[in-house]
Amino acid sequence: MDLKEKEFVKQVFSKNKEAYFTSSTHADGSDLELLVEWLSPRHDFTMLDVATGGGHVAKQLSPHVQTVFATDLTKDMLENTKIHLNDYSNIHYIVADAEQLPFLDQSFDMVTCRIAAHHFPNPNKFIKEVQRVLKVGGKFLFIDNVAPEDKLLDPFINKLEKMRDYSHVRSQTITDWETLFKSYNLTITKQISRKKQLPYVEWINRTLDSSVDKKRVKSHILNSSNKVKEYYMVNIFNNNIQSFTIDEWMVMAVKVL
């Protein structure tokens, strides 16, 4: 199943490589502005950006560190990102699985991963690998969509994401992630949760072409309960969805052992 899910990721991101580079959700997030403030990078640092996608984190931090290794499972995505970030000469691109990183133990001063982990079949393997390649005292900055703890709201958003993008595996809850961090001696030092608004048309067109599939997604939202619509702040005008929000978690942790 893991291999199948990872092939899905390659297919989706190869097809939509340019869309993920230009996506307002990925390219313009306010969280990007906080990266330097939170991480306090130094010019002698070597950093790893896991599942770099459009390279937005690598681009943001590149001027502040010595070397960036930007990895991604999808070769086509990396090649496209490299073209766009050609002026950033200290970024090196490596095709790599987040759950099996091709680096020696304690290789990096910082590790980042942004809006990607919901595609990983085995989050525990990913966190274990982050802990392994991070130096003692090194910082891990993680950002991803998260599911609410509520047993009604969690299934809704994960089903929606899967309908719209078959490479989606699961948005974990914050409690899920906190448990994993603790298991691998990553001590959380700072965190924020926020509502992230998604422009519906851009969001659905980034991954879906079929009008039938788009209709299914729209129906899933429109036929949801009032509780769901209120929580996700679904904005509807003339029976058309304008936008909605999802939960996002930004956290920084330090490797203590």
TrEMBL record:
Gene3D superfamilies on file: Vaccinia Virus protein VP39
Domain Methyltransferase type: start-end pairs: 48-142
Superkingdom to which the source organism belongs: Bacteria
Keywords: Methyltransferase, Transferase
An example Gene Ontology biological process: methylation
InterPro entries in alphabetical order: Diverse_substrate_MTase, Methyltransf_11, SAM-dependent_MTases_sf
Classification via SUPFAM superfamilies: S-adenosyl-L-methionine-dependent methyltransferases
GO molecular function, one term: S-adenosylmethionine-dependent methyltransferase activity
UniProt record similarity statement: Belongs to the methyltransferase superfamily.
Protein name, UniProt field: Class I SAM-dependent methyltransferase
Organism whose genome encodes this protein: Oceanobacillus halophilus
